[in-house]
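Notes from the 1:1 (GR / supervisor)

We went over the backlog. Supervisor wanted to see one worked example end to end before approving the batch request, so GR pasted a single chain during the call. The sequence is below; no edits were made to it. Supervisor asked that the structure be written out right there so they could see what the output format looks like.
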Amino acid sequence: MDDFIEVYPDAVPAATCARIIEQFEASGQDQPGLVGGGLFPDLKNSRDISITGKQEWRETEVVFVQAIMNGLARYLRRYPYTLIAPLMVQHGANPDEVRRLSAEDFATLPDVALGEIIRSIFRPGRINLQRYRAGEGGYPYWHCELYPRDPQCETLHRHLLWTVYLNDDFQAGETEFFHQQRKVPPRTGSLLIAPAAFTHTHRGNRPAGGDKYIATSWVLFNRAEQIFGKPPG
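Structure output shown during the call:
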């Protein structure tokens, strides 16, 4: 049975991952990792850098956005209801050919057309680089990615979570999903995608014998006014 947890190997080249780790260590920008409610090291013990919008991280940000968009296209072809269950999506090469998409359409939908649909519905979240120290770092708290505290409701726009593992020269440190009873072992350059809701409650296990580095974020819905247009008046 499908568990909606997908792992795509070699989404980011190993040499690129190594370069990103080197830049992380040389930057001096890392800060204590936060959870939605603030700083709670007993829930999450990490050092983080938010790279989105920072010029010195622009090249790295592009690498991750391209990787997640490629992975998202593969994910939607396998799980088309990720897109068409929340929304009625219509598509056509010209106005006379516009029609409602069905799940069966995704197998033959051209890459360019699927990419256009993805960009019209989804956007990448803020990308966070994280380092978990061997024997002490981790995110042991069972959690999901939806969080209602944000007054702008950005966190409620999260639809999928993703993680790129930047190294694997350690033991343990898996991403563990509670309900699916599944542990995903880190592999350098691999991309993990899964739903953001409570059905995929998860935690990040503590690495042993070496530090663990990841990049992580979300796929969010675009704001309603972008998808549907501004309401009249």
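Supervisor's comment: The longest strand covers residues 212-221.
Batch request approved.
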